[in-house]
Amino acid sequence: MSDSLTRGIAAAQAELHGMESRAGAEAVAREVRRLNARVRDLARPVLTFHDQPGDFAARLLARADVTNG
Q: Which of 11, 43, 44, 69 is the most buried (most CB within 10 A)?
């Protein structure tokens, strides 16, 4: 899996941490893709193209279960 996300993560690991991740850049890139897809799936029904970046977090907070607070 040698795409730009994997290369970017590998570069960031080296630059930010000074060492290679034990998980490896490919595994981290897979997890980033999985989490991004999950957030998009959750956001799609509640956001429109008119919404601002902070609107998703505000909507999550509004729908939060008060017993978890």
A: 43
